Amino acid sequence: xxxxxxxxxxxxxxxxxxxxxxxxxxxxxxxxxxxxxxxxxxxxxxxxxxxxxxxxxxxxxxxxxxxxxxxxxxxxxxxxxxxxxxxxxxxxxxxxxxxxxxxxxxxxxxxxxxxxxxxxxxxxxxxxxxxxxxxxxxxxxxxxxxxxxxxxxxxxxxxxxxxxxxxxxxxxxxxxxxxxxxxxxxxxxxxxxxxxxxxxxxxxxxxxxxxxxxxxxxxxxxxxxxxxxxxxxxxxxxxxxxxxxxxxxxxxxxxxxxxxxxxxxxxxxxxxxxxxxxxxxxxxxxxxxxxxxxxxxxxxxxxxxxxxxxxxxxxxxxxxxxxxxxxxxxxxxxxxxxxxxxxxxxxxxxxxxxxxxxxxxxxxxxxxxxxxxxxxxxxxxxxxxxxxxxxxxxxxxxxxxxxxxxxxxxxxxxxxxxxxxxxxxxxxxxxxxxxxxxxxxxxxxxxxxxxxxxxxxxxxxxxxxxxxxxxxxxxxxx
Length: 478
Hints:
Blueprint (H helix, E strand, L loop, with lengths): L6 E2 L5 E2 L4 E8 L3 H12 L4 E5 L5 H6 L1 H18 L15 H25 L3 E4 L2 E5 L2 E4 L2 E10 L3 E3 L12 E2 L13 E5 L3 H12 L3 E6 L10 H14 L2 E4 L3 E7 L2 E8 L2 E7 L1 E4 L3 E3 L6 H4 L3 E2 L2 E2 L12 E3 L10 H15 L13 E3 L5 E5 L2 H6 L4 E7 L4 H6 L5 E7 L5 E7 L3 H14 L3 H5 L10 H8 L12
Parallel strand pairs: 3-4, 3-8, 4-5, 8-21, 10-17, 11-12, 11-17, 12-13
Antiparallel strand pairs: 1-2, 6-7, 7-8, 9-18, 14-15, 15-16, 19-20, 22-23, 23-26, 24-25, 25-26
Helix pairs in contact: 1-8, 3-4, 3-5
């Protein structure tokens, strides 16, 4: 795209070198990086993508996709067990864990292959290896140097296990390792009640594993609306999932064939046993061996700092995705990839986080977007809350999935939708209507005046919006 970039030498001079020349180099081929690469190619840029492992990153290989494949197997099993309720005789239902895991691997392999094909189709140069930044315009991969006009860091995040005695014992698993099990554990202790821990709890509980969640603080699933999180927590014991609250885990010990997780309480030392232990204790930005300190990149709590254009403090260097340490969600990372690329190619665009959907693929599903009731209350924003239960939704009743509700929060003065929060069937799909409403500044009246197909689950969203006006049709006002 015109003249090749100049490269800073050790003496501080800038000169042109005979190395690979690119408009944009992206370090990291996960949800942020590979989407950024494709978008940049669509905009006419010459792009190089650096990835030391498999394309697709954590989400595709060790996160979103494999867990959702397992979640689907769990859903099919639960539906099969209820088949008799729908007049379908299904007896001797059993699982084959090896086939469940094979299905998971097949899904991942298919999608990774798809990303690889997209790289080729978009003429993106993929460099396999660890990228090290030599200057804002020069990246080294293995023994090869790539010159670039703009640089985007998209190195993602890594699991952060608790630094406690016994954390390295056999059978203590990370969220990566649990996806490679060959046998279904009889019992599983999950340390951490984040959405990741809850998703794994739902999956393995459905498959027949005895699951215990250990959490230091009450299970609220932030940033999900507090009421929705509280109602979900109440469903866990009914599903057979035990939850231990107030447990600051201090150690893990081996006791014969089981692992014991220990913590102190006012009543003395407590413990719970399990065949395996899952560390679902969060993730941290991954910035190792990049050369960020030498480059002078500003950091905060281990994360890269950027402005609203996703620029770092170093000219021509951008950062996106989990490495920012904020919204560690694949869809946010992909969005940031598109925004950063447009800014790098001189199409100014600020990142807008007003409408970020959060989804938890548990039983039942949970999803939310926009402000929670706690946030509007603490912010002293005049508001109105309306709710509609799935037990009053015809489609949900026909499906036999009536647990949960839709909750809408609107501004009391103009009816603009401030937040939508859902617990129930296909919540992760239904939230899209709320995302559009929040993003576009739609009102409850806008939703009510939009015809929704019948009988469908989205009718529950419309009925909730009606609750902001004169009242829902299929639910008595109290």
